[in-house]
Design brief:
By secondary structure, the chain is of the alpha/beta class. The chain has two domains: 305 residues, Purple Acid Phosphatase, chain A, domain 2; 47 residues, no CATH class. Helix content is 38%, strand content 23%. Strands 1, 2, 3, 4, 13, 14, 15 and 16 form an eight-stranded mixed beta sheet that branches. Helix 4 links the parallel strand 2 and strand 3. Helix 8 packs parallel to helix 9 and helix 13 packs across helix 14. The longest helix is centred in the C-terminal third of the chain and has 22 residues. The protein starts with 6 loop residues before the first strand and ends with a helix.
Length: 378
């Protein structure tokens, strides 16, 4: 009987080739971007990263909240040089420069022979998984994102694949029927928060129950922990892979990890690959020494919280308290910073009384009311 070969799948988080990385890439100095992680990417059977912005020269940005990101199309050469085979595109920035920005990105990836998944120019292709056969095993990658500006739900007939439990279940279930392994790559969560919300934990476990063999998440710009549920791994955030932002002083931005999924005999094992990225030193560098020891301790701490539902809820409640005032400000009918300051100091009452808050709560919580509210705001 022929022995089954192990399949090595490398998956990393957000790759956004802007600022210093863009300059290095356009100068052809790809080694300075990836450094010692190159040897790991290159030897994998399938290497995947999340392209966190369009590669385009388009100048017309869409109207949205948050920054509009893009990079020069030639930065694709760094990904090609490193040996990446597949880019997940379902994220909250891939449509920052509209249809044209996405079109340019898909075209340059096609020219360079790099596959993409998670975004498309026609609705029929948006939710299609990427499928590949390696060592006689069929592997499928599904890429989805929370609904922030870039998904087809926001744009009607093109864009990124949406995080939607009903649609996601159908896609996962259908894909599993003709695949040996199904890997779900999700883009979502709370930025700069190192844990999943209880909702996310429940949802990602549901994806495993739907047929996924692994769930891997990114977006929060910091790494989180992981768990093994029903024998299948769930990684709640990989953190940034290579995302240069010299304005960010919070060190959690600069640490992340990649995952090597080791597939054999219908089993999934894995290896965590931690690194530091783009602080005073540009590029990605594997951790060693005290940095590695501290990473291991923090990862173990995060895992212990994820394992305990009550601890996870307590952590989320504390996180919420830090942002409660900000979200209350979002729904006030004024946007003047001085008025917000007065309200925070309790010198100005909230416009929303308890009765009004109950109304808003019900409109948002009730699915039928929420459908109408979304159509109204859209």
């Amino acid at each position: 009987m022929k022995e089954e070969k192990q399949i090595d799948v490398f998956v990393s988080g957000d790759f956004c080739p802007i600022n210093r990385i863009e300059k290095l890439s356009m100068q052809g100095e790809h080694d300075k971007i990836f450094n010692d992680i190159l040897k790991i990417v290159g030897k994998s059977d399938l290497s995947v990263t999340n392209l966190e912005c369009p590669l385009t020269l388009e100048t017309k940005a869409i109207s949205k909240t948050g920054p509009n990101l893009k990079a020069h199309p030639s930065t694709i050469n760094s990904l090609k040089y490193a040996g990446f085979d597949l880019l997940t595109l379902a994220n909250n920035h891939i449509l920052d420069y509209g249809y044209k920005g996405l079109k340019d990105t898909l075209e340059i990836c096609d020219i360079k022979g790099i596959n993409t998944v998670g975004a498309a120019l026609i609705l029929e292709d948006v939710d299609k998984p990427f499928q590949i056969t390696i060592h006689e095993k069929k592997i499928s990658i599904i890429s989805i994102a929370e609904n922030e500006w870039s998904t087809s739900k926001s744009n009607g007939n093109y864009g990124a694949s949406s995080l939607d439990p009903v649609t996601n279940f159908r896609v996962i279930n259908r894909t599993k029927s003709d695949s040996d392994y199904v890997i779900v790559v999700a883009h979502g969560g709370h930025e700069m928060y190192s844990l999943p919300s209880p909702r996310m934990k429940d949802l990602f476990r549901f994806y495993i129950e739907s047929g996924a063999d692994a769930v891997i998440c990114h977006h929060s710009h910091c790494f989180s922990g992981y768990e093994v549920f029903k024998g299948k791994p769930i990684f709640y955030s990989l953190g940034n892979f290579c995302f240069d932002n010299e304005k960010v002083t919070n060190p959690i931005w600069n640490f992340g990890y990649a995952v090597r999924l080791l597939l054999k005999e219908n089993n999934i094992d894995f290896e965590i690959i931690p690194f530091r990225q783009n602080d005073k030193d540009v590029g990605v560098n594997l951790l060693s020494g005290d940095d590695y020891i501290n990473f291991e301790k923090e990862l173990a701490n995060l895992n212990s919280i994820i394992e305990d539902d009550s601890k996870l809820q307590d952590s989320y409640d504390k996180f919420f308290k830090d942002y409660e005032e900000m979200y209350l400000n979002f729904i006030q009918p004024y946007s003047n910073k001085y008025i917000h300051f007065l309200r925070r100091k309790k010198l100005l009452p909230s416009i929303w009384k308890k009765k009004r808050k109950r109304l808003l709560y019900n409109i948002i919580m009730c699915e039928s009311h929420r459908d109408m509210l979304i159509k109204t705001l859209k």
